[in-house]
Amino acid sequence: MQTITQRSVAYIEENLLQPITLETVAIEMGYSKYHFHRTFVREVGMSATEYIKHRRLVLAAHQLLYTEERIIDIALNSYFESQEAFTRAFKKYYSLPPGKYRSLFVQKKGDEPMTNSEIKGWFLSGSHPHLYKLTADQEVVHYGSQSVRLESKEALGEECFATIMQQFKAKQFIGKRMKFTGFVKTEQVEQSCGLWMRVDGTSQDILQFDNMHNRPITGTTEWNYYTIILDIPDDSSIISIGLLLSGKGRVWVDHLSFEEVDDNTPSTNMDPEAELASEPMNLSFEEV
Hints:
The chain has 288 residues and is α+β, with helices and mostly antiparallel strands. The chain contains seven helices and ten strands. Strands 1, 2, 3, 4, 5, 6, 7, 8, 9 and 10 form a ten-stranded antiparallel sheet that branches. The model has no long low-confidence stretch (mean pLDDT 90).
């Protein structure tokens, strides 16, 4: 079941080229403007109004590079009242005015396969990483100028998976509840994909874990917001985070975040004990 944040992000993504506002999204979600605003800011880290503006600027950047639309038309279609207002906002976001951005990057557009050494802090792993391709995608972007795309190269078995991941020391996060979030878009994911996070102890045992197995992303989906929340116990040693793709498909990830939250924010830890029965059952095999 989608959260209010996921439902609102989906609604915004579907209506970016429509005259939507904070009020219209709140009404669509069935909440007061003030309650919805607080919820969205707490989850995403920015207001819905800021999110809409940022996403429209990203779409505008795409139009600058991949179409021949006039800047004034792009500005008005992005719901800026003038080309001057659009230029100010675009320059603040991309550090370049629209015309300069177009002339500078139009010859560089496209995407390039990435190697482990080219992705600072990240590496490709999994059961069959050689059967997957990792790409810097400058055309399908959620935030900024590029996203990362992970996709299968060929027909795969159900046991095949790959992940883009990183690991770091848990020391400075011990005793805290941490939230790992990001925006994910998928295309023809046949099995599953999702964010994941794992906390390993000093004895290399798994202390906390969530790979969204109980809420997988499948099929073809637009950009949306996903969250993992885990505690970092006292005996934690290493934290691992990443994006997992099982089986065939294509998935983009962008605008990741890793931050502390308070204890009132529910953990998403997948406790294996919760799936165990309290006693043996059906020992005679007569129940069906």
